[in-house]
Write a structure and sequence with these properties.
alpha+beta; Mth169, Chain: A; 3-stranded antiparallel β-sheet; 2 helices; 3 strands; ligase; ATP-binding; purine biosynthesis; PurS; EC 6.3.5.3
Length: 76
């Protein structure tokens, strides 16, 4: 079983990597980009029967810094 965890900075948290990408896109001639937020995707190979609650606990304890980041979980 696979799970995907999408981790993004919360709204209002400065995203210097996203701003650098936005600036670079402008330098390459892509002028219509008003903002960029950069995050990460973590893909987990899990044993059958692993619950979404278990994956959320992994996020809370290790995979996401919940002070400044939010996350979503997709089981598949």
């Amino acid at each position: 079983m696979k799970a995907r965890v999408h981790v993004m900075l919360k709204d209002g948290v400065l995203d210097p990597q996203g701003e650098a990408v936005r600036h670079a896109l402008g330098s390459l001639g892509f002028e219509g980009v008003a903002g960029v937020r950069q995050g990460k995707v973590i893909e987990l190979d899990l044993a059958e029967g692993t619950t979404e609650d278990t994956v959320r606990e992994m996020c809370e304890r290790l995979l996401a810094n919940t002070v400044i980041e939010s996350y979503s979980v997709d089981l598949g």
